[in-house]
Design a protein that fits this description.
The complex is a heterotrimer of chains A (357), B (323) and C (261).
Chain A: H1 6-35, H2 40-48, H3 54-67, H4 92-105, H5 119-155, H6 157-172, H7 175-189, H8 209-246, H9 249-257, H10 261-297, H11 303-312, H12 316-344, H13 346-353
Chain B: E1 4-14, E2 20-31, E3 36-40, H1 47-55, E4 62-71, E5 74-75, H2 81-88, E6 93-96, H3 110-119, H4 127-140, H5 145-149, H6 158-169, E7 176-180, H7 188-203, E8 209-214, H8 217-223, E9 226-231, E10 234-240, H9 241-246, H10 251-258, E11 310-312, E12 315-317
Parallel strand pairs in B: 3-8, 3-9, 6-7, 7-8
Antiparallel strand pairs in B: 1-2, 1-4, 4-5, 9-10, 10-12, 11-12
Helix pairs in contact in B: 6-7
Chain C: E1 6-17, E2 24-35, E3 39-43, H1 50-57, E4 65-70, E5 73-74, H2 78-84, E6 85-88, H3 102-108, H4 119-132, H5 137-140, H6 150-164, E7 168-172, H7 180-197, E8 200-205, H8 208-214, E9 217-222, E10 225-230, H9 232-237, H10 242-249
Parallel strand pairs in C: 3-8, 3-9, 6-7, 7-8
Antiparallel strand pairs in C: 1-2, 1-4, 4-5, 9-10
Helix pairs in contact in C: 4-6, 6-7
The chains are: A mainly alpha (357), B alpha/beta (323), C alpha/beta (261).
Chain lengths: 357, 323, 261
């Protein structure tokens, strides 16, 4: 079947590669925290076990060990013990198997810091904020950046002269620096916007008008600090792509034919867009990472903030959960862009049909 | 009345430092309906600049200096870019460009590119009727319509692409066609097929008058009625095909013919002679004959006296000493 | 007369692209040999396999099956092979980098040599090579590829050959991008390379007229096969194969009735 439908084959092989990447990411995600020196159980015990006597502390510790799947259990779900009464530690490969199994079931474990809160619940709380902030910024930033870049290339003149250096500046600025700059300018020097949070601190999240307007008010600074940098970077790439396209023979030929200006603009935009899409696939991870940092700067109650809190508190399950989620979303975004390129570019399409020369 | 007239046309490029480079300097010719004029010359002689001038299409840094171009008695100079685009390009004067590989948009089907051409010139076009019209036209000009119209350029061979370009350029039955080296990127067999198609279009009266530009003089022998030889922005010789090919009078035309080679008995002994040196840099003013530096029959006066067109043996020659 | 040592010899050489139904035989069961100091022309229309054969000779493509020997031995080491076999390609502008001067790039071609000459000798040899292709060295001093004309650039590619002095030159359509009036001079330089540096030249073209002028032997290719071969006089003046006749017929020669209208 795959042989007869090259498009299906293309998607399946691509999907296969992405799945392989996903497995590698999960493996890294599991082993990286375990390479560290600090033992999370010790950290929790240091925190909660302060006032307990030895016996109670040991019972508590064993409860944690059981909870986090670090010891072997027998059929009655009791801790298996060796001859000297110490709990039998689960070997790493078994832990890994359990971890993958849990991941596939959608169970990311329990938070250390907010024990016994589940990691999934923490992420569930944070993710709407992150999606609300990042999806529009990345999409609008990308589209508006490309349109502006194309216009700058086509119009040239003063528009380009003013726009291009600004875009360069935006592109050269790291996310965190720009976020801090905006915060400093518009929340401290000239305090017209709030500096931190996703909504005013004295409000409780409800669907009331006051809450929504407060949300929108807090949304502006983080939005622009991501949006401007993204748009600037895309605009620079698009501008040079379009300048290249404008010099090609087919644009000259279209002019000779007397084809309308807006049609020529469309030719140019579409053809310049294809390499830009590839660029998007390459940089999407960077964008999401940068946006997470922006969240941290503005203490925006999204995934970035959850991650920051978790890192500060050595909360491994939450860190792992967040990174896994980011990895998966980056992979998904990449996969979608990859498939899109295949459908939009007839050259790639011809390549697929021709057996992938 | 001539259908196409170029009257003492001067064109220049404006450099970013404000200097004017005269790329075409005083070209004059006129063409009757049904005529094919060949223009021969090496690269950089101003052929392609002349093409833009003949179409009234001035994209910076190219500017008209003086002179006039008339199609059907109507001047196409000094018009607004929009007017030129809508009423002249493709309708009065159409262009068949050089590169068969890159002249078509790689991400657009042939039929859509052809449709764009028509939609840009006519208002209220019905989409269905439009594609039907394209199909009929491509059938008429002998293309494999079904295969070609729905294809992307990359799926076609170079020869087919070039024939598509010719088909698209002539969709609006232009009064005048300018073909700028339409076959120079093709091999000899494909070249013949493309020339055959051009002849077919001429026979079918899709267009009747053509300027054919190439650096291959032998090709012009079979294509053109008259031949103009261009050097450094000027016509140096203009006469009938037989006059220019078999009895050239200007030293440059002679040199071009001497550089030609072909597979014929005895040709291996007749050594083709390359023209040494390079055309003059037009950024600096030239006082005398523009070909003087490379001319085998150069005289001291040539470097001083500007050469003007004179009639030698029934054709125009820009050389005081040609006979 | 060509001496008896063979440069290239091929036996049942086949080169296939693609898989299964979509596969095409670019080179189809060729057996031939090219002698030392011979100029052999490969002539054919586009898609006849002449460029693929050139790439096999340069060891840029590996043949699918069959035997291909250089001086009686199979080609093993790429670098070693390129010291002896050098190409001239169709489009000189795509052969040079736009960010370095032409002279620097010509000097860089010494990099393929086993023992590099001294700096002074390098400069001298570049100057000599430039003079050999009729270019005054000062003319291109400090210039970049985009500042030169197509004819000049094609001569730069030939200057590279004069510098490296390989045993074999593979010229893949060196004249198809240049004007008719420069064409003759390129052919002159090919003859000069053979005469002065006793080089073996494989000249690839679609124009049998050019092949007729330069070569000792002509191979006419069609769909991956050599359909006719022989001396220029035999092939071009007394063609026996229909493809050869077609190729000859398609040249717009001024003395014949090429096309009727």
């Amino acid at each position: 079947m795959l042989k007869r439908y090259p498009t299906v084959r293309y998607i399946v092989t691509r999907g296969g590669w992405y799945f392989l990447t996903f497995l590698v990411a999960v493996t890294l995600n599991f082993f990286l925290p375990r390479m560290g020196k600090s033992n999370p159980i010790d950290i929790i015990m240091a925190k909660v076990g302060g006032g307990l006597d030895t016996k109670a502390a040991q019972a508590k510790e064993e409860a944690y060990l059981k909870e986090f799947g670090l010891v072997e259990l027998d059929a009655q779900k009791n801790i298996r013990r060796s001859a000297d009464g110490k709990p039998v530690r689960t070997p790493v490969w078994k832990q890994f198997r359990n971890y993958v199994g849990m991941c596939l079931r959608g169970d990311l474990g329990t938070s250390f810091l907010n024990y016994p809160k589940k990691v999934v619940d923490i992420i569930k709380q944070a993710i709407p904020w992150t999606i609300a902030l990042q999806l529009p910024t990345i999409i609008f930033g990308w589209i508006i950046g490309n349109v502006l870049g194309a216009l700058a290339a086509y119009r040239r003149g003063i528009f380009d002269g003013v726009f291009f250096p600004l875009a360069l500046l935006a592109n050269a600025m790291p996310f965190f620096a720009f976020g801090m700059l905006l915060m400093y300018l518009f929340a401290i020097i000239w305090p017209i916007f709030p500096a931190v949070g996703g909504y005013a601190g004295n409000l409780v999240p409800t669907l009331s008008w006051t809450f929504l307007s407060s949300m929108a008010y807090h949304y502006i600074l983080p939005f622009f600090s991501i949006f401007l940098i993204l748009a600037g970077g895309q605009a620079i790439g698009m501008r040079s792509m379009c300048i290249y396209e404008l010099g090609t023979d087919y644009v000259k030929y279209a002019k000779w034919l007397g084809v309308r200006e807006n049609k020529i603009l469309m030719y140019m935009f579409r053809n310049a867009m294809l390499p830009q899409l590839t660029g998007l696939a390459l940089s999407i991870g960077q964008m999401i990472g940068g946006a997470l940092i922006t969240e941290m700067i503005f203490s925006y109650p999204g995934l970035g903030m959850a991650l920051l809190t978790a890192i500060q508190g050595n909360d491994y399950p939450v860190i792992q959960g967040c990174t896994l989620l980011v990895t998966v979303s980056v992979l998904c975004a990449n996969f979608i862009v990859d498939i899109l390129i295949g459908f939009l570019d007839p050259r790639v399409k011809a390549g697929i049909a021709g057996g992938g020369k | 009345m001539p259908i196409f007239e170029v009257d003492n046309l001067h064109l220049h490029y404006l450099t970013r430092f404000g200097a004017k480079i005269p790329a075409v300097a005083g070209v004059t010719f006129s063409m009757e309906k049904g005529e094919v004029l060949g223009i021969a010359g090496e690269s950089g002689c101003g052929k392609s600049t002349l093409v833009n001038g003949c179409m009234g299409l001035f994209i910076p840094p190219l500017w008209p200096t003086s002179g006039n171009v008339r199609v059907d008695g109507e001047s196409i100079m000094g018009r607004s870019p929009k007017d030129v685009r809508k009423n002249i390009l493709g309708r009065k004067v159409a262009m068949i460009p050089q590169g068969a590989f890159n002249s078509l948009n790689p991400t657009r089907k042939i039929k859509d590119q052809a449709a764009d051409m028509i939609v840009s010139h006519e208002s209220n076009v019905d989409k269905k009727a439009l594609y039907e019209r394209l199909r009929q036209r491509f059938d008429l000009i002998g293309m494999e319509t079904e295969k070609v119209l729905g294809a992307y350029p990359i799926q076609l061979t170079a020869g087919t692409r070039q024939r598509c370009v010719i088909g698209i350029s002539t969709l609006l039955d232009p009064k005048m066609v300018i073909a700028d080296e339409p076959t120079s990127a093709l091999d000899v067999t494909t070249q013949k097929a493309v020339i055959r198609m051009i002849f077919d279009l001429l026979d079918k009266q899709i267009f009747s008058t053509m300027i054919f530009i190439t650096h291959e003089l032998p090709l012009l022998r079979h294509v053109a009625n008259r031949i103009a030889v261009m050097y450094a922005g000027e016509f140096v010789e203009l006469g009938t095909t037989d006059q220019v090919i078999f009895d050239p009078r200007h030293p440059y035309t002679k040199a071009l013919m001497g550089a030609m080679l072909s597979a014929e008995p005895g040709q291996r002994q007749r050594k083709p002679v390359a023209i040494e040196g390079a055309p003059p840099n037009l950024a600096y003013p030239i006082s005398g004959c523009r070909f003087a530096e490379r001319c085998p029959q150069v005289r001291p006066e040539c470097r001083v006296n500007k050469q003007e067109i004179r009639i030698v043996a029934d054709r125009q020659v820009r050389c005081d000493y040609a006979e | 007369m060509p001496s008896e040592t063979t440069i290239f010899s091929a036996k049942n050489l086949t080169c296939v692209f693609g898989h299964g139904k979509k596969s095409t035989k670019a080179i189809d069961d060729l057996t031939f040999s090219i002698a030392d100091q011979e100029i052999v022309s490969l002539v054919g229309g586009s898609g006849c396999g002449k460029s693929v054969l050139a790439k096999i000779m340069l060891n840029l493509i590996k043949p699918t099956s069959g035997e291909f020997l250089y001086k009686g031995k199979p080609i093993i080491d790429q670098r070693f092979h390129w010291r002896e076999v050098q190409p001239v390609f169709q489009d000189p502008f795509s052969c040079f980098n736009f960010f370095f001067t032409i002279r620097d790039q010509l000097k860089a071609s010494f990099g393929i040599m086993k023992t590099k000459p001294s700096k002074k000798e390098m400069e001298e040899r570049v100057d000599q090579a430039l003079l050999a292709v009729n270019i005054v060295p000062s003319e291109i001093q400090g210039k970049y590829a985009f500042e030169l004309s197509g004819g000049q650039m094609q001569r730069m590619l030939l200057a590279r050959i004069f510098i490296l002095r390989p045993a074999v030159l593979i010229a893949d359509e060196p004249t198809s991008m240049v004007d008719a009036c420069v064409r003759a001079s390129i052919l002159d330089y090919l003859m000069k390379l053979k005469k002065e540096l006793s080089m073996t030249i494989v000249f690839i073209t679609h124009d049998i007229g050019l092949a007729y002028y330069v070569s000792d032997r002509i191979f006419i290719m069609h769909r991956g096969k050599i359909v006719e071969q022989g001396t220029p006089d035999d092939v071009a003046l007394k063609p026996k194969n229909e493809h050869t006749m077609k190729l000859l017929d398609d040249i717009p020669d001024i003395h014949k009735n090429w096309i009727s209208r």
